[in-house]
Amino acid sequence: MRRAFVGVSGWRYPRWRGDFYPKGLRQKDELTYAADRMTSVEINGSFYSLQRPSSYAAWREATPEDFVFAVKGGRYITHLKQLHDVETPLANFFASGVLALGAKLGPVLWQLPARMPLSPDRLERFLAFLPRSHADAAKLAAQHDDKLAEDRVATEALVDAPIRHALEPRHESFDTPQARALLAEHDICTVVADSAGTWPRMHDATSDFRYVRLHGETELYASGYTDDSLDRWAAQVRRWLDGGHDTYVYFDNDAKGHAPHDAERLLDRLLDTGHD
Fold first, then answer.
1. Which Pfam families does this entry report, sorted A to Z (predicted)?
2. Residue ranges of the chain with pLDDT lower than 70?
3. Cα–Cα distance, 22 to 46 (Å, whole number)
4. pLDDT tens across 70-87, in order?
5. Terminal CA-to-CA distance of the chain, rounded, Å?
6. Which of 91, 106, 182, 257 is 20 to 30 A from 137 in CA distance terms?
């Protein structure tokens, strides 16, 4: 049975304290609190810097057994290197503790900068490097360089499972048959991103699962979603599930604290119809 994984992009936001998070809740307990009310969370600290294996292990232990994490790939790879010469940075990324999530590792998200147009050869080289299983990721992680101290390395595959990848391009050149065919050939999910019109919204499926990022309905990162809009998203998620596709939805409209409340509201709609 296919599942909908619904949550937020990141969970440590001061604006949420005393609002979504009860007053007085310890910061160390915020993930557990969120995980009791959602089915997934997108780790976005990994985008800004390499995290520690101990952090990934702690996040795994702080969440329910059936909880799933998406992990956002590092901006050093996507924004600074822009996918050029990234084999060692990819090894460092996967060696930094991602595998410590074990069975709770969901898709890995690669968000590209809006200034980056499609370069088919460059993209194809990058996609060919991506590990497609925990075992492949462990082999890649073992090639990390000395930028990672030994106490910040985890290269063991804890489970025998595939790894999915999703790409969120933000340049219109990716909204083309050529780009879609390339992503489909490599079984990479194209992210459906709702960004209040800031970046193109790409709809075409290029993998067997769906990945949605909701950045704000009318104001990027700031506005909430109306009941009517959430009804439409719930209906779309149900269609994907009925079509046999696991679906991951993350609210990134965190600036004014809407994200966790919108995630709960979407989950309520899905639970009311027997989808979760």
1. DUF72
2. 272-276
3. 26
4. 999 999 999 999 999 999
5. 10
6. 182
